[in-house]
C-alpha cells in the first residue's frame, strides 16, 4: 500500500476522535464527506451485502416521479414515492438530478442487468453467486460440483471441466474410490449449527485419503474481537436460519469432532472470509 494511502487511512481513523462541541454543521459536513468517500470505495458486491444486512432496497430507473408512478405495478402515493426516491438518492443508489428528478447510477442499472447477477443475489438475500468461467481456469483437472439434485438440475456450465452430481451431504460421499485431492465448501457450513456441520464433515472425512486429501472451507473466521460489519452482519443473518459464523476456536472444535485437524487458515486480507485448510487426523 502506498505511504500516502496509509497516511490518509490513519488521518481518517484519527478523525473519529474529533470533538465538534456545538459545531454540529461541521460534524455533519464531515459525516457526509466520509459517507461519500465510503460510497466511492464500496464495490457493487459489497453494496449488495450492505443492503441485505443493513438497508432496504428498491430498484431504480431514469424517470421523474409521475413517470415512475405510471410504470409501477401498484398505485403509489406520489408523496411516499418522493420520500423513497429521496432515500435511495441519499444512499447513492440513484442520483437526484433536480427537484423530483432522478436518474440511475451504475449500481441501479446493474440491478436491472441480468448479466451482472446482482438482482438474483439480492433476491436470495446472499452473495453466493459463482461464475465458473471466471473462478475456474481452463487448465484445472477434474472438478465435481455437488449440490442437492434439484439444484444440480438447474446448473448450466460454460466448460466441460465440471461434472455435476446430485448429492445430499448428509449421506455417504459418492466420489470416493481414491479420495479426492480437495473437498471445497464455500458459504455452506455457516448455514448450519455445529452438530450438523460435524455430521456433514464426517461424511467428507470418510471419503478422504490420508496424507493426500484436503478439506478447504471458505467461510468467515470471526476474529475474537473487532469483527467487520460484513462479518457481524452475515453472522446475524445466519443466526436467523440456525447457522452462524465461527471463530477459529469453534472451527477447530467442529472440524476435530469430524476426525480432522486444521493445518492452516488463509484470511482473504479484506476482513471478509478465510480459507480453512484441514486434513485427516
Ligand atoms: C448458501 S448456498 C452456497 C452455494 C455455493 N457454495 C456458493 O458459494 O455460491 C448453500 C448450498 O448448500 C446446498 N445444500 C443445502 N442442503 C444440502 C444438502 N443436504 N446436500 C447438499 N447440498 C445442500 C444448497 O442447495 C445451496 O446451494
From TrEMBL:
Record-linked Pfam families: Methyltransf_2 (PF00891)
UniProt GO BP: methylation
Molecular function terms, GO-annotated: O-methyltransferase activity
Keywords: Methyltransferase, S-adenosyl-L-methionine, Transferase
Name this protein carries in UniProt: O-methyltransferase C-terminal domain-containing protein
PROSITE patterns given in the database record: SAM_OMT_II
Keyword S-adenosyl-L-methionine listed: yes
Keyword hit for Lyase: no
O-methyltransferase C-terminal domain: residues covered: 142-260
Species per Swiss-Prot/TrEMBL record: Trichoderma gamsii
Secretion signal span: none
Amino acid at each position: 500500500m502506498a505511504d500516502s494511502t496509509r497516511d490518509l487511512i490513519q488521518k481518517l481513523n484519527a478523525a473519529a476522535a474529533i470533538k465538534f462541541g456545538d459545531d454540529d454543521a461541521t460534524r455533519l459536513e464531515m459525516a457526509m464527506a466520509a459517507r461519500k468517500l465510503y460510497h466511492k470505495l464500496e464495490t457493487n458486491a459489497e453494496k449488495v451485502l450492505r443492503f441485505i444486512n443493513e438497508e432496504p432496497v428498491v430498484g431504480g430507473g431514469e424517470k421523474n416521479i409521475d413517470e415512475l408512478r405510471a410504470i409501477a405495478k401498484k398505485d403509489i402515493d406520489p408523496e411516499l414515492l418522493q420520500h423513497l426516491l429521496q432515500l435511495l438518492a441519499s444512499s447513492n443508489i440513484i442520483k437526484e438530478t433536480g427537484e423530483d428528478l432522478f436518474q440511475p447510477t451504475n449500481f441501479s442499472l446493474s440491478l436491472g442487468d441480468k448479466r451482472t447477477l446482482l438482482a438474483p443475489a439480492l433476491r436470495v438475500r446472499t452473495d453466493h453467486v459463482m461464475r465458473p468461467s471466471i473462478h475456474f481456469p481452463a487448465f484445472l483437472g477434474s472438478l465435481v460440483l455437488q449440490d442437492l439434485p434439484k439444484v444440480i438440475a438447474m446448473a448450466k456450465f460454460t466448460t466441460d471441466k465440471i461434472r455435476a452430481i446430485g448429492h445430499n451431504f448428509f449421506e455417504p460421499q459418492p466420489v470416493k474410490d481414491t479420495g479426492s485431492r480437495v473437498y471445497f465448501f464455500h458459504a455452506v457450513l455457516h448455514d448450519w449449527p455445529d452438530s450438523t456441520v460435524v455430521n456433514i464433515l464426517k461424511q467428507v472425512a470418510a471419503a478422504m485419503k490420508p496424507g493426500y486429501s484436503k478439506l478447504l472451507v471458505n467461510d468467515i473466521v470471526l476474529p475474537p474481537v473487532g469483527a467487520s460489519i460484513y462479518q457481524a452482519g452475515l453472522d446475524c443473518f445466519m443466526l436467523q436460519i440456525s447457522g452462524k459464523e465461527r471463530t477459529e476456536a469453534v472451527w477447530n472444535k467442529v472440524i476435530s469432532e469430524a476426525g480432522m485437524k486444521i493445518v492452516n487458515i488463509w484470511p482473504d486480507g479484506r476482513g471478509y472470509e478465510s480459507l480453512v485448510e484441514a486434513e485427516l487426523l
